Amino acid sequence: MKVDARLTGVSETALLTLQVRAQEARRPDAIIDDPMAVHLVDAIEFDFAKFGHTRRQDMALRALAFDAATRRYLVDRPSATVVALAEGLQTSFYRLDAAGVGDQFRWLTVDLPPVTALREQLLPASDRVTVCAQSALDYAWMDRVDADDGVFITAEGLLMYLQPTEAMGLITECARRFPGGRMMFDLPPSWFARLARLGGLWTSRRYRIPPMPFGLSAAEAAELVDVVPGVRVVHDLPYPRGRGRVLHSVLSTVQRLPALDPVRPSLTLLEFD
């Protein structure tokens, strides 16, 4: 029997990103190995067709970028804690657990109760995974983090849906509470976030992506080192290589040319003092 997924608002985007990742993982030439995403889609009762066209690479490429940065951190700090803010239906823990980075790292999932309840019904339990059923903006989750062996915070697909003061406040508090840690997030450029706010972005006749109050270009994200106390270094990370020469050429060109920084999405990794 399938599990009925009743998510609304921003939480529903978790089902969209899951479907895109699973569609990619099913391909014989898939760029991502994500059997848990495929399992989730098959186990969920939901009208995925409402999202429209989902055969694309972007969400898989984003997931791979987060995996790579997290894995690099865990190689040096194998007992660190990874905090996944607004994790949705990401399956990052299971991909990393199968990637040979050891079995010492711990995981903290932070998301709203309807999402965490769905995860607990569908995903296998692990004594290394702790769940906080709350908003990422309720900073009480920070008290659950043992940062002695390092902490890596991910905000994959989160900050764009927060108000600017909320997003900046979250970054600032993470820098204050977790010196020596790192935080990674993705954001659309400001013009794209503005478009999403004004006219809305429809993926089909039946689904519109929620408004995005917050966006930063790569150049704007670089300024966080001067704006947020405790941010030591800002890294502008490239997207991994996708399938197809044209896509790879476009992504490489956009990443390489500073003049295109204002128009491309950013993948940002912060190192805290």
Automatic annotation (TrEMBL):
Biological process annotations from GO: methylation
Taxonomic lineage: Bacteria, Bacillati, Actinomycetota, Actinomycetes, Mycobacteriales
Alphabetical list of Gene3D superfamilies matching this protein: Vaccinia Virus protein VP39
Protein name: O-methyltransferase
Domain of life: Bacteria
Coiled coil: none
GO molecular function ontology, one term from the record: methyltransferase activity
UniProt KW Transferase keyword: yes
Keyword vocabulary terms for this entry: Methyltransferase, Transferase
InterPro entries, sorted: Ppm1/Ppm2/Tcmp, SAM-dependent_MTases_sf, TcmP-like
